[in-house]
Amino acid sequence: MAADDALEIVRGALSVGAPTRLEDQRKAEKLRAELDQLAAHLDGAEDVGARFEGLAEAAAEARERLELLSLQPSSRRRLVDALWARKASTRSIDTLVSRLASCARQIDTTSSRAVTAATDAPEIAVRLEQARASTTEGPRASLPASNCRIAASALLASCMPARPGDADAGMTARAEVRAFVAEVARTFGKPIGINGDEHCATTVRELGVLVEHVKRQSSSWVGRRVDADCSWREVSGLEPKDVNLYDVNENLLKPLGAKLGVAYSELFARGQKREPKVFVSHAWLHPLLLTDEALKQHAEDRGYGEDEPIWICAFVIRQHAVNIDAIIDSPFFKVLKAREMTVS
Q1: Virtual CA dihedral for 339, 291, 106, 174, nearest 10 degrees?
Q2: Rounded CA gap, 200 and 315, in Å?
Q3: What is the C-alpha to C-alpha distance for residues 249 and 256, in angstroms, rounded to an integer?
Q4: SS3 category, 289
Q5: Engineered SS bond to 279: which of 184, 195, 233, 339, CB 3.0-4.6 Å?
Q6: Does the keyword field hold Coiled coil (predicted)?
Q7: Nearest one of 333, 190, 317 to 263, comparing CA atoms
Q8: Domain range spanning residue 132?
Q9: Among 260, 248, 266, 253, which Cα is nearest to 188's?
Q10: Is residue 319 located within the same domain as residue 194?
Q11: Nearest-5° Cα angle at 32, 28 to 33
Q12: Sign of the CA dihedral 144, 186, 202, 172?
């Protein structure tokens, strides 16, 4: 309907008074119908206007995309390089934040060691005085003169913070190893070395003892992890679920071997050879707790029980002084020849 026609209808409606004749009533009804039709057209025009605005927004967005697509190849490359640079910058910031957090944890550990040293200092001073007195009492002294050196070394070790990644450098780590050995010795006696790594074995039950120790002590351990940029960083205070065999080796197995000259399995063997029936090939990066669960399940499925001798290189070879011979003479080769099952 044209705008002029609509105006004519409105004018006609305004010129009509109260209808008194039948003809006037019909004319009024016709005008009302045409007005209703006009109102409907106006409502439709508003809908079209709203749709037009939506189309205009879509057209603007499409125009921006077309402009982006019309960039020259060199411009597109610069845009892509800029985006990658921004992502790389974000990764660098994340790495920096992670390293700062690691430094903060190391500072907390050092502070804790300093508090421990201050607490132990009076007792160590008494030991020093006793050792000094024993050196002046002649050969019958109750304390040997070497106690002076031992006490002095203990004092120095307790006051100096351990280097990150060198878990056996401080007094705390050595005390942990001593406590663990003493705990096992209460049941199995003093550890005795065994000749021939191929005659050594551990068991799933003995692995469970290690798992319980890790759950108690890993918060004081130091480990190494790889960042997103493939650089190594040191982490203080490990969660038990995150501990792998590299962590166990650095924080327990090596200090154990350096102190007693034995492997983990020799703590339980009472000097007796144990011929392994199961050879376990494993990845050291695999979490220890998951390895323990997998071996328990394998023992149950195959019916050999948690006390069957199994060969795991980390626990039967003395990790502080690994010296593997030629392949044919290595304990790996000898055990593989004699084993009944292999788990990998």
Answers
A1: -40
A2: 9
A3: 9
A4: helix
A5: 339
A6: yes
A7: 317
A8: 108-161
A9: 266
A10: yes
A11: 120
A12: negative
